[in-house]
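Loading example: each entry is read as four labelled lines plus one structure line.
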Amino acid sequence: MGVRAQQKEKTRRALVDAAFNQLSAERSFSSLSLREVAREAGIAPTSFYRHFKDMNELGLTMVDEGGLTLRQMMRKGRQRAEAGGSVIRISVDTFIEVLESNPNVFRILLHERSGTSAAFRAAVEREIEHFISELAHYTEAQANRTPDLARAQAEALVILVFNAGASALDLKRSERKALADQLVLQLRMVATGAEALQQKMDNRT
Amino acid sequence: MGVRAQQKEKTRRALVDAAFNQLSAERSFSSLSLREVAREAGIAPTSFYRHFKDMNELGLTMVDEGGLTLRQMMRKGRQRAEAGGSVIRISVDTFIEVLESNPNVFRILLHERSGTSAAFRAAVEREIEHFISELAHYTEAQANRTPDLARAQAEALVILVFNAGASALDLKRSERKALADQLVLQLRMVATGAEALQQKMDNRT
DNA sequence: TAAATTAGCGTACAAATGTACGCTCAACTT
DNA sequence: AAGTTGAGCGTACATTTGTACGCTAATTTA
């Protein structure tokens, strides 16, 4: 890659990073202005357009990138689970860690999921869908579930985890422990219930 | 109430209604400006201050009012359930109806739950908490649950319902049917699972 | 009836925003 | 070596925003 393209990429990164850094509990993506982001990235407002058509395009990039980051981290965590122990417990702990080290990545997904732009909502759903289908396949194979039961179960699990994540963002570290415990309990409910429903269906034939 | 106070109340309502009416899939509360709301309500921008300190105060009013509306409608629906039939099924159907007739009320709760203002988030949580504790008490009495198991179960149920609501907002009427069915399945999972866990605990003593 | 209160208005202003336009100059192509 | 490209900049402008201030006129209070 030429010097020129390299520099361009660097600036582009600066923009994305600047936007991520400006996110916080008090600042959502949609409240960021193009000028603010450019300022933080150290370029002139008008130079922004050399990289993105508008703020929307930046945001979608962030959603995609953020989703990827999250999935990679979760996958890494799942490897730990293969060494033995409760899958649920380990997944929850991993998730909390991911959350703590990337709060802003999680924030944008969470907020834009119920956001004002259809494109954003779709992008977030797509990311969540990745989680769900990965998990559904896992359960289908592991626990011999009917596809649609596996699907419903996986979806319920993911939703519960995401929502707990949302609450966790506002909590102190000590309170998070209790939250994680309750989440584990809820996930077990779903898993146990799914198993019971599956049994009932199997016996009926 | 004097003529004067009556007129004031009327204008205040006009403001709240104007704000609710401007909400849509493409327009969140935080994207509304004070001037827009005033314009829609048919008063001068500066007159806004005769009723609310700022947009934030308006928003909090809307959250409180919206939560109240939702709870009243759900309560009315629960009466239908007492006539017999699956509590879960009837509650879900009621919820979908409520959603369809008050999409904007639901939207503001949903969006501000992950919003940018701590006050808003707290207000929404408070509303959701109402739902949860009502349901937890119901379950505790009805199904002899341990308090904390009842609590975890109720929370899981409410979260699943709310999330399905969020998805439903983006769906056509025909697709909502399938969504409702899956939701019912998920709720049954939680209920069944909670029951099984309860049994296990009981047997252990 | 006289005085006090106040909802609503119009004017005004500073601040911030998105973006059009044209320039520069370093990097790349031929 | 000569010519082309394009990232980044500065200037400029029309819009929109929140809100300060002071007035009016109708209602309420005394």
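The mean pLDDT of chain A is 94.
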